[in-house]
Specification:
This protein is α+β, with helices and mostly antiparallel strands. The protein has helices at residues 13-22, 28-36, 70-77, 91-100, 145-159, 166-177, 220-234, 249-255; strands at residues 5-7, 40-46, 49-56, 61-66, 86-89, 108-120, 135-139, 181-186, 189-200, 203-210, 239-245, 261-271. Helix 3 crosses helix 4 and helix 5 (145-159) crosses helix 6 (166-177). It is globular, with a radius of gyration of 20 Å. The two termini are 29 Å apart. 36% of the residues are buried.
Length: 272
């Protein structure tokens, strides 16, 4: 291992978070891996602190973000080469890491190309719908769970073409308990739900907004997200980040009016 590449320990958290805070949008999944535990982190040390990072998370995925020495970082972060399930990060860095790890011949199951959209919450634009009588955005309660579980199944069927298992469905209850699940009501009827993938002191990652087909084209989705983010802003969160498919123009167009703009592009190569 090169002298300027080091394996991080819990004592390195302030330095790591300083690096992630300097690059908040393209490192959301790296940040999540740190807090989730069970990951091995390698960092490139520079004169001003950490200058690049790579990790193999607890699910086996290798995530990279660095302006240089991707091969050294990718190799150093491995805790189990046989369990590499995929490689994610900026496009060129992903390709470089795959070559460095000797994974060019691995069978690819999926190539996920996403845009990263972000917004400083002091520039959040609230849709006109939120000022209309009868429109309320609030955190979901346990009473809402039966409907939101039904909608989660419909969401997975539509977007991913499969029915979620018990583990995935348990995430609905977990998100509700953590305050990461939101609903928009129109005259007392829930017409949209929005969820955050992760919440940090000054940063939130939007996961999705969903309405059944019969409730769409009413600006409910962007309004649910904007209403939830307005509350998060009052709670001290300063930035929102959102990943979506490069070709998912409906979502990109849908959240552009509240202020989200493309800041980066992300690639994840998932192996069979």
């Amino acid at each position: 291992m090169p002298d300027d590449v080091a394996i991080l320990t819990p004592d390195d958290e302030p330095a790591l978070l300083a690096y992630l805070d300097a690059h908040p949008d393209p490192t959301m999944f790296v940040r999540f891996a740190w807090y989730a535990g069970g990951a091995r982190f390698a960092a490139l040390r520079g004169e001003a602190g950490i200058a690049g990072v790579a990790t193999q998370n607890k699910n086996g995925a290798v995530l990279v973000h660095s302006a240089s020495q991707i091969p050294e970082l990718a190799r150093a972060c491995l805790h189990d080469r046989d369990r590499v399930t995929g490689v994610g990060g900026p496009h060129e860095e992903v390709r470089e890491a795959i070559v460095a790890l000797g994974l060019e011949d691995r069978k690819v199951q999926r190539e996920g190309r996403e845009v990263i959209m972000a917004l400083e919450l002091d520039k959040l634009v609230l849709p006109d719908l939120l000022s209309q009588p009868g429109i309320i955005v609030r955190r979901a309660t346990s009473t809402d769970l039966p409907l939101l579980k039904e909608w989660r199944i419909r969401y997975y069927n539509e977007v991913f073409r499969f029915t979620p298992d018990a583990e995935l469905m348990s995430e609905v209850e977990g998100a509700q308990r953590a305050g990461r699940l939101w609903v928009l009501e129109d005259e007392g009827q829930i017409v949209n739900t929005a969820a955050w993938y992760a919440v940090y002191p000054r940063l939130v990652q939007v996961e999705y907004a969903y309405s059944p087909a019969e409730l769409r084209s009413k600006h409910y989705g962007r309004s649910a997200v904007a209403g939830g983010l307005a509350v998060m802003r009052e709670e001290g969160v300063r930035r929102g980040v959102f990943h979506t498919g490069e070709k998912n123009m409906a979502v990109q167009i849908g959240i552009d009016p509240i202020g989200f703009k493309i800041t980066h592009r992300h690639l994840f190569i998932q192996f069979s």
